[in-house]
Design brief:
Blueprint lengths: L1 H81 L4 H84 L2 H11 L7 E5 L2 E2 L8 H8 L5 E2 L6 E4 L23 H13 L1
Parallel strand pairs: 1-4
Antiparallel strand pairs: 1-2, 3-4
Helix pairs in contact: 1-2
Bound molecules: zinc ion.
Length: about 270
């Protein structure tokens, strides 16, 4: 039964690798869109500002024409002021001159405001062009990184799938089926290590009787709580080194491992 556990552990590892590489692959389209997003945002702003700049220049031209016309009206009005023949006529000419003045002020103010906008827009264009070039460079860089991640994940997926198929084929068909039914909807968490009577997958204690049976390693058993396939983690036959079972690294008591380490350090030095 131990060899089945070992095969299942290998299969679980392959299962987890295929899931992890699939997750990387599934994120690729989003990552590509994100890499393009910033560049597109800048490009849109640049196009918008160029259009605004064009419109502002056209508006300035029309304001200049208006001012030109007002200037002509003003000089005509001044000329008529020199030839005035009655008070009534004078009042009419005066009223007209006030209207021309007010409109001129209005147009001058509009021109000043527009010139300020034009300055800002003109300055923004080269800035946005530089930002666009940088964003283009970054997005190309991101695309290369994403493509390399995609290739790596695809290779990992293919390799893990191949090994998984191979391992499944080496199993008894009923055991292979058992594994596949356990694997379905478990997100790669198929086996549950059990240590000192506790299932480490769900952290629940299992009945002592069940734990005793598990330690005999003679049949496949399922955790009564999380329904994963249990295995005795501290089974010496599995040879699983775990941080919990390993001796403390700084223990002063000389162990065989400690001595081995010491001698390897002195040999290196
Ligand atoms: Zn459990």
């Amino acid at each position: 039964m131990r060899d089945v556990i070992i095969k299942f552990l290998t299969l679980q590892e392959m299962e987890q690798k295929t899931i992890a590489s699939q997750a990387v692959l599934s994120q690729i389209p989003d990552r590509l869109a994100q890499a393009l997003g910033e560049r597109e945002k800048i490009q849109t702003e640049l196009l918008e500002n160029k259009a605004k700049l064009g419109a502002a220049r056209a508006e300035l031209k029309s304001l200049e024409l208006d001012m030109e016309q007002l200037k002509e009206l003003k000089s005509g009005n001044k000329l008529r002021q020199t030839r005035v023949s009655s008070e009534k006529e004078y009042n009419a000419i005066y009223k007209e001159s006030e209207v021309i003045k007010a409109r001129s002020t209005e147009k001058e103010e509009a021109t000043l405001a527009l010139m300020l906008t034009l300055d800002q827009l003109s300055a923004s264009v080269p800035q946005l062009e530089a930002a666009l070039a940088e964003a283009t460079r970054l997005s190309a860089e991101a695309n290369r990184a994403i493509e390399s991640d995609r290739k790596r994940a695809q290779n990992e997926f293919d390799e893990a799938t191949r090994q998984r198929e191979e391992s499944l084929a080496s199993l008894d068909s009923s055991l292979a089926e058992r594994f596949l039914s356990l694997a379905a909807n478990r997100h790669g968490k198929i086996l549950a290590p059990v240590s000192r009577g506790t299932c480490l997958a769900c952290n629940m204690s299992i009945p002592p009787q069940l734990f005793n049976e598990l330690q005999r390693v003679d049949k496949l058993m399922v955790c009564p709580n999380c329904h994963r396939l249990m295995f005795w983690r501290d089974d010496p036959g599995l040879g699983l080194a775990t941080p919990e079972s390993a001796p403390a690294p700084v223990a002063p008591k000389a162990t065989k491992k400690g001595r081995a380490k010491k001698s390897s350090t002195s040999a290196a030095g």
